[in-house]
Structures are given as C-alpha cells and as structure tokens.
Automatic annotation (TrEMBL):
Organism taxonomic ancestry: Bacteria, Bacillati, Bacillota, Bacilli, Bacillales
Keywords per UniProt: Coiled coil, Signal
Keyword Signal tagged: yes
NCBIfam families noted in UniProt: RND_mfp
Signal peptide: 1-26
Protein name: Efflux RND transporter periplasmic adaptor subunit
Domain Multidrug resistance protein MdtA-like barrel-sandwich hybrid: 66-253
Residue ranges of every copy of the YknX-like C-terminal permuted SH3-like domain listed in the record: 342-408
Sequence similarity: Belongs to the membrane fusion protein (MFP) (TC 8.A.1) family.
Length: 414
C-alpha cells in the first residue's frame, strides 16, 4: 500500500513547484502609470498689472531726396570741381564735358539756317514774278477764247447762208478748239502758281534748320551739368579725362534735412496709423529721442514684403543725424490702462474654433479654460474673464496637452 502512494505524492510536488516558478509579476499600480504619462510643462501665474498698446518697429534713416546725376550727352569730363561730402546748391556746376565738337556743331547749324533763310527769300521773289506772268497769260488766253468763240459763231451763220466754204468753217472750229485748250492750260498754270509750292518747301527747310540749330545749342548747354537740388554730394563716380554718358551717374546728391524713416507695417498695424500720427523715434547710437509724425502712408500693400510702406519725416537742421542710422520707432496707441487688471503672458493664450483658451493647473492636471481677453502687446495680454489672480497657467507645452491631462511642472511660477 505504501508503495502505491509514493508516485502520487511526487507528482503533486512537481505540479506545485512548476506553478510557483511560473507565477506572473505584480502589475504596476495606477499611480505608477499616471506618473509615466504626465506631460512636462512650464507655468506662470495670473497677476495684476497694466498693458500699454504702444507698438514699435526698427528701421533706418534715409535721405528725403536722392538724385543720381548723369549727363544727357556723352563726352569727356574736363572739369569736376566737387568732391565727396561737399554741400551744393541748386544750379551749382558739378562737372563739365568737352565742348569743342558741340560748339562746331552749333556753328554749322547757324550757317545752315542762314542758307535756308536766303533760299526762302529767293523763293518768295521768284514766286511773285511767276504769279504776275501766270495772271497775264490767263487773261490773254481768256480774251483769245472769247474772240475765237465769237468768230466761230459768225462763220457758222455765214456757212448756213452759203457765203463761205466748208473748209473755212472747219478752220473757225479748229481755232475755237485751240483757244479753249490754251485757256485751260493758262488756268492750270495760274492755279499752280497760287499754291506757292516752292515757297512752302523753302519755309519748311528754314523751320528744319531752326530746329537743328536749337538742338545744337541745347546740346552745348548740356555739356555743363549743374545741381538740381540743395544737398550734399554722397558719391562721385567720375574723374577728369573720363568719358561720361547718360547710362551711369557721375555725381549723387542727397538731401538730409529733413530725413525720412521708411518703414513697413503689417495689415493689423496699418489700420492704427494715418498721416499725422505722432511717433517717438529713438536713435540708439546717439542716445537720443525725437518726436515726429507720419507724413505718408501707402494705400497699397507691397506684394513682396506683404506690408504697407509708410514714411516719417524728421527735421535735421544741424546735420547730426546721418542716413542709414538704425532707429526704433514707437507708435503711440491708446493710453496705458490706469487701473491694474489681470494679465498673463501672451504665449499662454491659444485660439480654437473662434474662441480663446488657456490651460489652468488644477491639482496635478491641466484644465482647458475659455477666457475673454482685452488689450495686448507682443508679450502680455489682459484677461477680462475666465481666470483669477494667482491661478497657475501653462505657458509652454500646450501643444502636447489635452483637457484634464496630468502634467509635470518643470519650473516654478513667481
């Protein structure tokens, strides 16, 4: 009997041993799972403060006028009295080109004008004589035609009475025909003479010569180039002996009183600015602030910059300000809010479905809360409803959050 029970005991022991070795590990607790799924975020605190709607941009000073001056004609520079930085007045000589060939051209055109004038006088005299001759010839032909017509009528009457032969009748008809032809020719000559063709050609030649002479004189005058505006020489690109032409400027003049700030505003900012808007221009290199006004606003967006150009005029009577100096321009918007309001960092707010939200820390989770906002700058925004002073809100890491998700704060709000 004892022999039969021993295999059964051994088999039971083996089963228990295998079951003990294959027992699964304990499952992690709920706390461990939540800790592993927490999203790291940075937070800040809702505080009371003030927000100003002033906005600013960085730009550069530019001349109010810049003129690149090149000659209207090509020629060799023989005089260049100005140099870089010189102050020049409108009408002052900047440079001169060689005038010898141009002066010769003027002399030639003057001679051509005199020849044309003499030709006109001769044509006028010849035309008058021709008119007299043509008028006399027409009168003679008209009288001859009248005589031939009267003779033909008389001969016809005699021929019908049988007093003359048919040959005599034919001679009378032929004489009338010839007189008619002579009259038509004389009339045509008279009409042609009245048109004064030669005189008109001579007058046209004289006008052409006068225009050519005027052009030659203007070309001679263009050899002396003067300043079109008051200003300063900002560049000299030529030298005595160099060939200059219309393609490239020899001297550049700029007007630096006043100077301009040329800036570009976004679609949102341009609606707050108009001609006359007061601005503050800060020049960091001089540690100086200047009060100025907007003097020009483009109604059309620059399609390359996707912004609206504006200009601000700054007086510069003593020349202290220089073109291309970097400036900071502040546009005065609404006055800063006098009473303190709830403010948070602008980056904490996000838009969704036409509404604005923030994530507020509640316990260990982030709750998505709808808020109503007010004035804002690039850094701060006023909260009108939805939050309370002292609330902690997420300022970084929102894109990884969902409403109610557990968070891990990696900074401490002050």
């Amino acid at each position: 009997m004892n022999v039969k029970k021993q295999p059964v005991i051994l088999a039971l022991s083996a089963v228990l041993l295998v079951a003990g070795c294959s027992q699964p590990e304990a499952a992690p607790t709920d706390t461990q799972q939540q800790e592993e799924s927490a999203t790291p975020v940075e937070v800040d605190q809702v505080k009371k403060g003030t927000v100003s709607s002033e906005s600013g941009i960085t730009a550069k000073l530019a001349p109010s006028e810049e003129v690149q001056i090149s000659p209207k004609i090509s020629g060799k520079i023989i005089d260049l009295p100005v140099k870089l930085g010189d102050s020049v007045s409108a009408g002052q000589v900047l440079f001169k080109l060689d005038q010898q060939d141009l002066a010769n051209t003027v002399a030639q055109q003057e001679a051509a004008y005199k020849v044309a004038l003499a030709g006109l006088k001769q044509s006028g005299s010849s035309t008058d004589q021709g008119l007299v001759q043509a008028r006399n010839s027409l009168k003679q032909a008209e009288q001859a035609l009248a005589d031939a017509r009267l003779n033909q009528q008389r001969m016809k009457l005699l021929f019908e009475q049988g007093a003359i032969s048919s040959q005599q009748m034919e001679q009378a008809n032929t004489a009338l025909t010839n007189a008619q032809t002579a009259f038509e020719n004389a009339k045509q000559v008279w009409e042609t003479s009245q048109q004064k063709t030669n005189l008109q050609v001579s007058e046209a030649s004289l006008n052409q010569a006068a225009v050519a002479l005027q052009n030659a004189k203007e070309q001679l005058a263009n050899a002396v180039v003067t300043a079109p505006i008051n200003g300063y020489v900002s560049s000299v690109n030529g030298a005595v002996g160099q060939i200059a032409g219309p393609q490239s400027p020899v001297v550049v003049i700029v007007k630096t009183n006043p100077l301009l700030v040329k800036a570009n505003l976004s679609e949102a900012d341009i609606t707050k600015v108009s001609v006359g808007t007061a601005v503050k221009v800060s020049i960091p290199v001089l540690s100086k602030d200047v009060e100025a006004k907007v003097t020009a606003v483009s109604p059309v967006m620059n399609q390359q910059l996707k912004a609206y150009p504006i200009e601000i005029t700054i007086p510069n009577p003593d020349g202290e300000l220089k073109a291309d100096m970097v400036v900071n321009v502040t546009f005065a918007g609404q006055a800063a809010v006098q009473n303190e309001q709830l403010v948070i960092p602008r980056k904490a707010v996000f838009d969704r479905d036409g509404k604005r939200y923030v994530y507020r820390i509640e316990g260990e989770a982030a709750k998505m809360v709808e808020v109503t906002t007010g004035e804002e700058t690039s850094d701060l925004i006023v909260i009108q409803s939805g939050l309370a002073e002292g609330d902690q809100i997420v300022v970084r890491g929102q894109t990884l959050l969902q409403d109610g998700k557990k968070v891990s704060i990696i900074n401490k709000s002050k």
